[in-house]
Amino acid sequence: MKEWDVIVVGGGNAAFCAALAAREAGASVLMLEAAPEEESGGNSRFTAGAMRVVYNGLDDIKALVPDLSQAEIDTTDFGTYTQDQFFDDMARVTQFRTDPNLCELLVTQSFDALNWMRQKGIRFVPIYGRQAFKIEGRFKFWGGLTVETVGGGEGLVAMMKDSGKKHGIEIRYNTRATDLVFDGARVSGVCFRSGTETGVISGRAVVLACGGFEANTEWRTRYLGPGWDLAKVRGSRFNTGEGLRMALDIGASPYGNWSGCHAVQWEMNAPEFGDLAVGDQFQKHSYPFAILVNALGKRFVDEGADFRNYTYAKYGRVILMQPGQFCWQVFDKKVLHLLRDEYRIKRITKVSANTLPELCEKLDGVNATQALETINAFNAAVKREVPFNPNIKDGRCTVGLPVPKSNWAITIEEPPFEAYAVTCGLTFTFGGVKIDTGARVIDTDGLAIPGLYAAGEMVGGIFYFNYPGASGLTSGAVFGRLAGNSAASFAKQQAVGRSTNRKIA
Ligand SMILES: Cc1cc2nc3c(=O)[nH]c(=O)nc-3n(C[C@H](O)[C@H](O)[C@H](O)COP(=O)(O)OP(=O)(O)OC[C@H]3O[C@@H](n4cnc5c(N)ncnc54)[C@H](O)[C@@H]3O)c2cc1C
């Protein structure tokens, strides 16, 4: 039976980064992907391909996007996103719980990781439209989020597959890892199931990059809590927590925010799992310019508390807690031109009206009388003298409401009005296994499990409660690359017969 140097479990961004790094280090690499090829690529394929990255100005953006045109340069203020800003964002949104060692790697390696991806054939473009609005002829980027992969998540996975093929990485689709081969001293392979076939594949090192437990209804209810069985899953149906279970079974330490997850506002009538034909377009992320009204006809959250990038990942949970697990996003004509492209898809629950009473009657499942009162009270509370500016936190707020709106408070009074129904869409879970700064999986005694590495959503301790938008792919790239490198050098040591004494992590 062939013994691979490195077996990578998973077929998303983290797995490909691990596989490409291990291959670069000279290892033979086999990837196991549970999904059939047409559904492969995990959550990574459903993304917009947006990646949070540290950059110190135009030169860094040009390094990532070498074909930036002069016209783009002339009309764009890219600003900067420094290491300090990324650290601050991580600390603030995780309420200072992010693991400092892992966070440091994420932040300080982010630019190198994207540059390395570029060398592996992944191309990036600036995120015009979603992350920069054109004001007086000029785009200004905001919220630390500036580049995305060409073709979004589809493009990312396609480019990764091409790169994997070019570098001689074998991928077995429809092949689910079911257990780790572990003799108490080291991991030496995986058990798998492919259709009705089962078997064992030997490997000197194993990288687990097979996602969280977002697609497992029972685990969601068990760990995230009551009600999470009712959430829609935004992405892959294959991330059922099996990698986590396999690692925990051999003593890996659970780590991080097991009751936490990334969840957003998502089309109310979206299917149970993501649909690759729609991708991330069921999300509805222009809510900072709306008011949100629940079944009682009331507002319940500060829609403009911060830039979308810093609130969207925690507001899904807030929607799930509303009666009936839904709300309506209500917009006035003045901001309709700012709505993101995802508001123009066909599969959408939308109503429009020319008067407020008519609109409120059309909000299915909502107390219309109360909704009208809520809108009128909101309009009366808006600080109209403050100018509206979507590119900055403009301080155009409400005064005196029990639930304030802190920025971008636009009155709902100019028809036509539009409203969109949303529920909670779960993106991925935050709980994972503990790793050290070499991506080695740590057991409950604090020791590295020889031969076992983890990356991507499987890594615990990075995100708690919330998440700075587009850090997931960056995390997968940084820790995937690290895991691939570490696994390749461990495999090399095994190959030359060096002993693998367990060391205190
Ligand atoms: C709709 C949507 C939009 C998003 N947009 C963005 C964005 O723009 N930017 C961003 O940074 N993040 C975004 N995210 C989050 C991002 O998708 C994740 O953080 C990231 O893709 C995780 O990468 P991963 O490789 O760890 O997991 P995945 O990409 O989910 O890969 C896991 C892989 O493991 C496979 N697998 C599972 N179990 C097994 C098993 N037992 N054996 C073999 N294979 C298995 C799965 O089939 C899958 O291929 C988005 C997520 C969704 C759902």
Oligomer status: single chain
> What ligands are attached or bound here?
flavin-adenine dinucleotide
Overall, the morphology is: globular
Sheet-strand content, in percent, reads 15-25%
Computed Rg? 23 Å
- Intertermini distance: 32 Å
Mean pLDDT: 96
The assigned structural class equals: alpha/beta
Descriptive notes:
- This protein has 505 residues and is α/β, with parallel strands linked by helices.
- Helices cover 28% and strands 21% of the residues.
- The protein has helices at 13-24, 58-64, 70-74, 83-93, 100-108, 110-119, 152-166, 217-224, 242-249, 308-320, 356-362, 368-381, 472-495; strands spanning 3-9, 29-32, 50-51, 76-77, 124-126, 132-135, 138-141, 147-149, 170-172, 176-182, 187-194, 197-208, 232-233, 254-255, 261-267, 291-293, 327-331, 350-353, 417-429, 432-433, 440-442, 448-454.
- The strands form five sheets. Strands 1, 2, 9, 10, 11, 12, 21 and 22 form an eight-stranded mixed β-sheet that branches. Strands 13, 15, 16, 17, 18 and 19 form a six-stranded mixed β-sheet that branches.
- Helix 1 runs parallel beside helix 7, helix 1 (13-24) runs parallel beside helix 13 (472-495) and helix 6 packs across helix 13 (472-495).
- It is globular, with a radius of gyration of 23 Å.
- The mean pLDDT is 96.
- The chain binds flavin-adenine dinucleotide.
- Flavin-adenine dinucleotide binds at residues 9-15, 32-35, 40-44, 46-51, 176-177, 209-211, 234-236, 238-239, 242-243, 274, 280, 427-428, 456-457, 470-473, 476.
- Residues 9-15, 32-35, 40-44, 46-51, 176-177, 209-211, 234-236, 238-239, 242-243, 274, 280, 427-428, 456-457, 470-473, 476 line the site of flavin-adenine dinucleotide (FAD).
